[in-house]
Design a protein that fits this description.
Layout lengths: L7 H27 L6 E3 L6 E3 H17 L4 E4 L10 E9 L1 H6 L5 E8 L2 E8 L6 E5 L4 E3 L2 E2 L12 E3 L6 H14 L5 E3 L4 H10 L4 E5 L3 H4 L2 H7 L3 E3 L11 E5 L4 H10 L6
Parallel strand pairs: 3-4, 10-11, 10-12
Antiparallel strand pairs: 1-2, 4-5, 5-6, 6-7, 7-8, 8-9, 12-14, 13-14
C-alpha cells in the first residue's frame, strides 16, 4: 500500500465534482446526438474501437478543471495520455462505454480517480444519463448517491451472476467467446454490459456477484475497482493474479471468490 500523505476525502470530492461536470457535458452531447446532431467519430486500435469528439471534449474539460482545482498534479487520460507523477496522479476515462454512447444505449460513464504510487485512493464514476454518482475513498467505504454499498454473498457457484467484456481484436474475442461459453455452464448467467467502470460499480452494489475482463486500460478500472473493493469485493488488478491471465481484472464477492476463481481458470481464462 502506498503511503499517500494526502486528504483522501478531499480527493474524492474533487473527483466527484469534476466527473459530474464532465458528465453534464456528455449528457448534453448525447441528447443532441439522439436528436439528430452529428458527432465526429474516429477509430483507434480497430474499426470497432471508436472515439468520438465528445470523448476529447470531456477529457479536455476534466484536465482544465483539475488544473484549476489541483495545480501540479499529473493527469493520465485515455485520449490525451500522460504519465504518473511523484504525488497524486488523476486517471481519467472521459467516456467509458463509448460504443454504448454512440448507439444511444444509456450505460456509459465518466470515470475519474486519484492515484498515489499507482494505487487508487479516491474516485468517482458518474453516469451522464441517469445522474447516478458512484464514489469511494480508500478506507471510507463506497457509495451510490450517498447510500453505502455492500457486495452480495452468493452461496453457490451456480447462483453467481458474472459480468465480463470482450477485446476489440478478433483473435482474442474468439478465445473469449469460448471462455464465456464454458463459464456459462458453471454459473447462473453471464452479462456483457460494455462499460468496465460501471460493471465494477455493479459488483459494489450487488447488481453483479463478480466481474472479470482482460486487457483493460488503467483508466477503465482506476475508480471502479476502488469502489468495488470499498464495498467489500475481493479485487485483483492486471498483473496481480497471473493464473487468471497477466492482464485480468477480477472483482468478486468474497463468499464465492475461491470457487469462481477456479471455475474461471478451468474455463480457460489464463490463456485469453
Amino acid at each position: 500500500m502506498a503511503d499517500v500523505g494526502v486528504d483522501e476525502t478531499l480527493l474524492k470530492s474533487v473527483a466527484e465534482r469534476v466527473a459530474g461536470e464532465a458528465a453534464e457535458l456528455v449528457h448534453e452531447a448525447w441528447t443532441g446526438m439522439n436528436g439528430g446532431r452529428e458527432v465526429r467519430v474516429d477509430t483507434k486500435s480497430a474499426d470497432t474501437d471508436v472515439v468520438t469528439a465528445v470523448d476529447h471534449e470531456s477529457e479536455r474539460l476534466v484536465r482544465a478543471r483539475l488544473a484549476e482545482l489541483r495545480p501540479g498534479d499529473a493527469v493520465l487520460g485515455e485520449e490525451g495520455g500522460g504519465i504518473a507523477g511523484d504525488g497524486v496522479t488523476w486517471v481519467v476515462d472521459p467516456i467509458d462505454g463509448t460504443v454504448n454512447f454512440l448507439y444511444g444505449l444509456p450505460w456509459f460513464a465518466v470515470s475519474v480517480a486519484a492515484q498515489v504510487g499507482g494505487v487508487s485512493v479516491a474516485g468517482a464514476v458518474v453516469e451522464p444519463v441517469s445522474g447516478r454518482r458512484w464514489t469511494a475513498a480508500r478506507g471510507q467505504g463506497a457509495f451510490l448517491d450517498g447510500r453505502r454499498l455492500a457486495v452480495n454473498a452468493p452461496e453457490r457457484l451456480d447462483l453467481t451472476l458474472v459480468g465480463t467484456g470482450f477485446a476489440y481484436q478478433v483473435e482474442r474475442r474468439t478465445k473469449q467467446a469460448r471462455f464465456v461459453a464454458e463459464l456459462a455452464t458453471r454459473v447462473r448467467d453471464v452479462r456483457r454490459n460494455g462499460a468496465a467502470s460501471l460493471d465494477l460499480c455493479a459488483v459494489a452494489a450487488g447488481w453483479l456477484d463478480a466481474y472479470v475482463e482482460h486487457g483493460l486500460g488503467q483508466w477503465d478500472w482506476a475508480a471502479g475497482a476502488l469502489i468495488a473493493a470499498e464495498a467489500g469485493a475481493q479485487v485483483s488488478l492486471p498483473g496481480e493474479d497471473t493464473e487468471l491471465g497477466p492482464d485480468a481484472t477480477f472483482a468478486v464477492a468474497p463468499s464465492i471468490a475461491a470457487p469462481l476463481r477456479q471455475a474461471l481458470i478451468d474455463s480457460g481464462t489464463g490463456v485469453l
